[in-house]
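User: For a teaching handout, I'd like to show students what a predicted protein-ligand complex looks like in token form. I'll give you the sequence and the SMILES for zinc ion. Please answer with just the structure.
Assistant: Understood, here is the input followed by the structure.
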Amino acid sequence: MTEQATLDLNSSQFTIDRISQEVLRRLADLQPAPVVDDHEPVPTAVNGHLELKTPIGISVRHVHLCPEHVEILFGKGHSLTVYNELYQKGYYAAREQVMVVGRKRCIEKVRVLGPTRPFSQVELSQTDALMIGMKLPIATDGSDPACQPITLVGPEGVVTLPGNGNGGAFIARRHIHLSDDMAKRLGVKNGDLLDLDIDGARPTTLHGILVRVKAGWLTEVHLDTDEGNAVGIRSGQTGTLIVPQK
Ligand SMILES: [Zn+2]
């Protein structure tokens, strides 16, 4: 091999090494940043308060059932089956549906949400309540004494929820799900009330968003269909949570 040929070979090897290094470097740049808690928004400080871009879920009328009521409505030994997973991990819309019996009318095919709970409860919008001729309180869950008695009909049986703090019908209070980590970062606790700014064609601020905290929850505001329609928001859109700093 001539001296010139050796030089050429060395220089082409050098070029290949350079290209390989460059390709590896660019591939490394393309790797996504390590995910801390997938899709969780990051609070930003604005004029002395914190703002958090928050996904909004619109809750359509639904029912939660205790295991005993699942068996009465759908048959002995029956358990709920998954229709589709909800945004919150471990929660799902079930295949099972029931008829909700009001004073003036019934609503058929009301979706059951899983998993089962200690108490059964029916969450309707104000529009639903008016349609079926019932006056319902705004509440957080079926343990609220203001919840109203209501009857559910399934393919295999009927149950009447007694109300009075032992499961019943109500209109869900607007709320936000937060993990304990996110609550700590925001400096809020269970039961606090916050504001949510809504942009778009119907810009609005919703007050009194109830904070609910549980380890593992993803950040998500829940409104009902009346609230979503009133502010022009559909599931999956976002609002801005305003968190005052004391
Ligand atoms: Zn919720």
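For the handout, you might add this sentence: The chain has two domains: 44-56+174-244, 61-172.
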